[in-house]
Amino acid sequence: MKRTEFYPFHKAAGAKLIEFAGFEMPVSYAGVKVEHEAVRTNAGLFDVSHMGQFLVTGEEALQLIQYVTSNDASKLKPGRAQYSCLPNEMGGIVDDLLVYQLKENEYLLVVNAANIDKDFEWIVDHNHFEANIENVSDEWSLLALQGPNAEQELQKITEIELSKIKYYRFKQGTVADIENVIISATGYTGERGFELYFKVGDAEKMWQALTALNIELTGLASRDTLRLEMGYALYGNDIDDFTSPMEAGLAWITKLDKEDFIAKERFVQQAEKGTLKKLCGFKMKYRGIPRKDYPIVNAENERIGIVTSGTQSPSLAEGIGMGYLQSQYANEGDEIFIEIRNKTVKAILTSLPFYTTK
Questions:
Q1: Is the dihedral of CA 250, 255, 260, 265 positive or negative?
Q2: Cα dist. 55→20, 133, 197, 201, 347 in Å?
Q3: What is the dihedral of CA 82, 86, 92, 95, to 10 degrees?
Q4: What is the pLDDT of residues 74-113, one digit of tens each?
Q5: What is the mean pLDDT of residues 296-318?
């Protein structure tokens, strides 16, 4: 298994380590509930250095990105980021990703760890433009500081005015005497926070500076409960090569009015005619924790869908989940039933997010 630059610090902090996307990563430190609550009320620090980074440059860098992604990257300017996805020819999702415009004709793509090689090959195979793409994943470390107090804590070690960095904006500057750090107002928790990109050689110095702040070390388990409370899709669970952004509630990142891009015509058809299935959120009516791949049935015990993500929400103290349902059953407020250990437990379809940040 691969290890991030922070592995020795995770070990020293007593983290429980697991294999994730080919990396040995911390799943928890003090426990999921403690870490989840810390992010909702104070600030938590996540090691997300397993994520992949591609640098796209050249006169037609934008044209390449426009062709292989669903969102409209022409709306970006230096200092702005965008959530998007890489569609395949069948309309499925190769991966979801962030697109940063660093400067004119220079972009940074941030992809999921499990898909680094697949994504890179996909983009290279479709690079029919005057553009260069370089996999710089091994050169970067990435830490995410998330929570309502993340800004005030991070401000202690940088002179950059963090309050001026709006959501999905970023600045490059000095943090903890480390230069050329990308400070991005993005994250995966729903809370105000920042993702910090910096060279691997600065990992120890950055870790020591951040862990000296009033923050909690947080792992993958709380990252998952936090993202699920917000209804954020997880690649491999809620989206994959066989689900389209239109089915997954991601029509808002699928810009049908831009010029040709991969699977555009299929998405146009889905927008006009609808889809056979839809990703829906639900809350358990009674005790029960929904898990990935649990069947969803109707009152007649007919299978109508499948759970893709589920948990016991630490913030709401109830079972929540997401899953794909046949479209005729995907109506907010309707009752469905989750098969849990050979029993059917009632749930109610609800809008997303489940939790509203303060």
A1: positive
A2: 24, 6, 13, 19, 44
A3: -80
A4: 999 999 999 999 999 999 999 999 999 999 999 999 999 9
A5: 97
The structural domains of the chain, ordered by start, are 7-49+138-229 (3.30.1360.120), 276-350 (2.40.30.110)
**Distance of alpha carbon 154 from alpha carbon 142, whole angstroms:** 15
Relative to beta strand 93-103, strand 80-87 is antiparallel
Q: Dmax over Cα atoms in the chain, in whole Å?
A: 63
Question: pTM for the complete prediction?
Answer: 0.96
SS3 track for 244-308: CCCCCCCHHHCCCCCCCCCCHHHHHHHHHHCCCEEEEEEEECCCCCCCCCCEEECCCCCEEEEEE
Q: What residues does 16 pair with on adjacent strands?
A: 28
In degrees and rounded to multiples of 5, residue 323 shows phi and psi of -165, 165
Asked whether the predicted pLDDT for residue 358 surpasses 90, the reply is no
**Over the range 242-263, which residues count as b (16 or more CB within 10 Å of their CB) and which as e?**
ebbbbbbbbbebbbbebeebbb
How many angstroms separate the CA atoms of 187 and 169, rounded?
11
Model pLDDT for residues 30-44, shown as the tens digit of each residue: 999 999 999 999 999
Say if strands 178-184 and 193-199 run parallel, antiparallel, or are unpaired.
Answer: antiparallel
CA distances 17 to 50, 87, 153, 195, Å, are 14, 32, 27, 22
